[in-house]
């Protein structure tokens, strides 16, 4: 149906423009220093350990999903 195609094309154009704007903003930011990256990674790993995440998303989500949502 032609109307669906035109709706999708409009959405794609909007998404493309937004993506380009995001890329430009990211490109303009200063890069993180190695010690900042190390600290972020440390905090991520600490949070993962706090919630019982051991590196396998499927196993973790199966473990933490309440029975009534399975």
Descriptive account of the structure:
By secondary structure, the chain is mainly α. The chain folds into two domains: 1-30; 32-70, no CATH class. It is built from three helices and no strands. The chain has helices spanning 2-28, 34-50, 57-64. The chain is flat, with a radius of gyration of 20 Å. The mean pLDDT is 91.
Fold blueprint:
Blueprint (H helix, E strand, L loop, with lengths): L1 H27 L5 H17 L6 H8 L6
Question: What's the quick description here?
Answer:
The chain is mostly helical. It contains 3 helices and no strands.
Level of helix content? Answer: over 70%
What is the number of strand segments? Answer: 0
What is the first-to-last residue Cα distance?
37 Å
Strand coverage percent: under 5%
List unreliable stretches of 5+ residues.
Answer: none
What number of domains? 2
| Total of DSSP H or I helical runs spanning 4+ residues | 3
In terms of structural class, how would the helical and strand content be classed? mainly alpha
Q: Determine the mean pLDDT.
A: 91
Shape: flat
Order of helices and strands: HHH
Main pleated sheet: none
Radius of gyration: 20 Å
Tags for this entry?
70 residues; mainly alpha; 2 domains; 3 helices; 74% helix
């Amino acid at each position: 149906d032609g109307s669906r195609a035109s709706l999708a094309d409009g959405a794609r154009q909007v998404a493309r423009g937004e993506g380009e704007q995001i890329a430009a903003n990211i490109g303009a930011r200063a890069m993180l220093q190695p010690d900042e990256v190390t600290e972020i990674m440390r905090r991520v790993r600490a949070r993962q350990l706090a919630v019982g995440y051991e590196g396998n998303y499927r196993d973790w989500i199966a473990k933490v999903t309440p029975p009534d949502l399975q």
